[in-house]
Amino acid sequence: MHDIGWRELTRYYRQAIDIAKTITGQGNESEAVSEFRSRLKSHSLYLNKQPFPKNESDEDAFQKCIKSKCCRVIILILIIFLILILILILVLVLILVIIIH
User: Fold this and answer.
1) Long-range contacts of residues 51-58, Cβ cutoff 8 Å, at least 24 apart
2) Entry pTM
3) CB atoms within 10 A of CB 95
């Protein structure tokens, strides 16, 4: 497992630095990494700025969605998508932590 981690780190290291520079607009590598890490920890990434619409979040909406096979598939796809995003964020954070140390 350790070897796989180092192989993936080598593979994605440069890409992670480039992403950090692009997103932050920083040219300096260490400043870009530091700012990018701060952005990843920001609560704004995890909280909605506005509440969900009532028709999408009340008990009636929930019941309609549960009864529909289509909605079940959509929910499953969304869950998979969210898991993949979390994995990507964790990989980027891991790479950045290793870069910093």
Assistant:
1) none
2) 0.43
3) 21
